[in-house]
Structure formats: structure tokens, C-alpha cells
Amino acid sequence: MSWRRPTYKTVDGERIDGVWCHIWRRRAFDGEYSLEDLFVYADGAIQCGFPSVDPLDLAGLEKLLASGEVAVTEPGAPAWDFKPSKWLSRNGWPLTPDGFLLEVADQIEKLNGRPTSNDRCWEAVRRYRQDPAEPSREALREAYLRIPPHERNFALGDMDLQDRPLRVLVTDIGEPVDGDGPVVTEEMRQWARDYFDRVHQGAADWEERKSSVLYAGSQPTGANSTSSSGVTVPT
């Protein structure tokens, strides 16, 4: 779902930030669907349509989705044509009402400056790297499955491998990834662990280079500084 910002409301003189997106809402007079704005605010209030309509919470939105009064994909549109293999497909999972509810919950967390499901998954990855025991892997699987399904393929921000390293880690050894992918072996699991080690090292190297640049910029004009690679850089 594409979220737009900024938007806000004022409650008792206090500004409450929000975001909004488009959904489809069934019209009462003819049963047809039309585009409607859905506003989500940091206080957890959800506004579907005109401000005069009473605000909802997540439970209220869930009821509207379950009843069909609100839809997150265009009703009557052709179904997405997926490849037969989930493992080989580069498409994400389809957007569903349950996935949308998870996404709305993440937007509320983000508006409040709290970790989203994706942030919590990365934290679970860090804990697993520190202690690659089975309880840590189970915790990682739970964190991964809390990410909205339609957003999981780009949870790592990797355009090439997508979320395959995560999918390998959360699958038990001897089981096929996604049910139709390769059977996970200890070698595959090590490949996934090595992937996250490289990501961690790359992030550490980037922070070191950034610190070197900031330090070089703080030096007096005409001074020399040494980069992390040992090369003297004139400033």
C-alpha cells in the first residue's frame, strides 16, 4: 500500500500526526465500490472517509474489512498472476485484509517513533547472530512472520536476494523453503548466516568511513587526514 504524508489533526490543541492511503469502500445506496481516503493517526485513531464519520481503531477496521464494506484491492480486478514456484517468484505475497491490518499497525508504531515489525525482525537477526541457538532462530521466525506478508520480500532492502536469506533461516533443516524451494541443509543455513555477517560488516565499515569524513571535515584548512584505508586525504 502506498502511504502519503504529511497530514495531521488537532485534538485539544495538540497536533497528532498521521498518514493516509486509498482504499475501496462499498456505497450504501448501490453496493458498488468507490475510492476513499483512509487516515491513520499516531493516537491509533483511524478515519475512513469524511471527518464527520466516527473514528475507528484497529478492531473496528478489521470488522469493516471482514464484512466487505472496505476492500484493500480493487473489487472485481483480475487476480495477480503468480509464478508456480513461490521460491523462484520475485513477486511479493498479495495484499490481503490481514496483511493490511499489520501494515496499519506498523504505521501507528512508526508515527510514534517506535520499532516496526521490520525493525523488530532486524533486532531478532542481531540476537541470532550473537547466539545462533534454536530458541534465537525460533524468535527470528516469529519476528519475520509478523511482517506484513506483502512486504516481506523487501524486508532486507536487497533487490537481488530479496528476503531469501531470512526464508532459509526460518525454515527447519530438511524442509523445503516456501514448500516448493530447495531443501534446507546446514550448508544453506551457514550461507544465510554468512550473508548477515557481511551485512553487519558492511554497515560497520560504512559507519567508520562516515566518521572519517566527518573528522576530516573538522580539521583546519590545509591539514591532512588519513582515511580508514590508510590513504592520506588533503582537506
Instruction: Give the total of beta strands.
Output: 7
Beta-strand content bin:
15-25%
- Mean pLDDT over all positions: 88
Question: Helical content, roughly?
Answer: 25-40%
Q: What are the secondary-structure elements, in order, as H or E?
A: EEEEHEHHHHHEE
The rounded Rg comes to 23 Å
Uncertain segments of ≥5 residues (pLDDT<50)?
223-235
Structural class: alpha+beta
**Distance separating the two termini:** 46 Å
- The total count of helices amounts to 6
Sum up the overall morphology in one term: globular
Sheet with most strands: 5 strands, antiparallel
Write up what this structure looks like.
With 235 residues, this protein is of the alpha+beta class. It has a domain at 115-218. The chain is 38% helix and 17% strand. The protein contains six helices and seven strands. The strands form two sheets. Strands 1, 2, 3, 4 and 5 form a five-stranded antiparallel β-sheet that branches. A two-stranded antiparallel sheet has the order 6-7. A hairpin with a 6-residue loop joins strand 2 (14-26) and strand 3. 20% of the residues are buried.
Set down the secondary structure blueprint:
Layout lengths: L3 E8 L2 E13 L6 E9 L4 E3 L9 H10 L2 E2 L25 H15 L5 H14 L3 H12 L18 H6 L16 H32 L6 E3 L5 E3 L1
Antiparallel strand pairs: 1-2, 2-3, 2-5, 3-4, 6-7
Task: Compose a concise summary of this entry.
This protein is an alpha+beta fold and 235 residues long. It contains six helices and seven strands. The chain has a domain at 115-218.
Keywords summarizing the entry:
5-stranded antiparallel beta sheet; two-stranded antiparallel ribbon; 235 residues; 17% strand; alpha+beta; single chain
